[in-house]
Amino acid sequence: MRMYETIFIVQPDLGEEELKGISARVQEVIVSMKGELKRLEDWGARKLAYPIEKFNRGRYYYLRFDGDAALIAELERRLRLNDKIIRYQSVKLEKEAPAAAAIPAKVTEEEPVEAAPEAKVETTTEEE
């Protein structure tokens, strides 16, 4: 299984019951497709960079989960069909990179570079 993250934006004027229903349906899709939900965060209502479907604000949700390509296809299909969700995006995460301290830095000593001599610029003016 691969790790994915999805951010989706719902309409800002939804009630708490509708928001709980949307997040429950998203969790249900992940579990039914044999995925493993790692994190579900409600980032709250934020101003959108540009109006989407005549909304200037939206409520953001963040998901991180393990799954396969079929899970992503089904999740995005369900997000697309829900009229209350105005945008979504899923990305596949790469494996965790080793910490920067674990990678030795390659130090090389270079000879100091001498400054280039200043170029003289001659200006000529023609008098007529």
Write down the CATH class.
Alpha Beta
Number of domains: 1
**If classified by CATH, what would the architecture be?**
2-Layer Sandwich
- How many distinct beta strands? 4
**Number of helix segments?**
2
Mean pLDDT reading: 83
Strand fraction equals 35-45%
Order of helices and strands: EHEEHE
CATH topology: Alpha-Beta Plaits
| Helical content (DSSP H or I, runs of 4+) | 10-25%
Going by helix content, strand content and strand pairing, the class is alpha+beta
Largest sheet data:
4 strands, antiparallel
GO biological process, one term: translation
InterPro entries: Ribosomal_bS6, Ribosomal_bS6_sf, Ribosomal_S6_plastid/chlpt, Transl_elong_EF1B/ribsomal_bS6
Family: Belongs to the bacterial ribosomal protein bS6 family.
Keywords: Ribonucleoprotein, Ribosomal protein, RNA-binding, rRNA-binding
How would you portray this structure in words?
The protein is an alpha+beta fold. The chain has one domain (about 1-95): Ribosomal protein S6/Translation elongation factor EF1B (Alpha-Beta Plaits), CATH 3.30.70.60. About 25% of the residues lie in helices and about 35% in strands. The chain contains two helices and four strands, in the order E-H-E-E-H-E. The protein has helices at about 15-30, 70-80; strands spanning about 1-10, 35-50, 55-65, 85-90. It has a four-stranded antiparallel β-sheet with strand order 2-3-1-4, with helices on one face. A hairpin with a 2-residue loop joins strand 2 and strand 3.
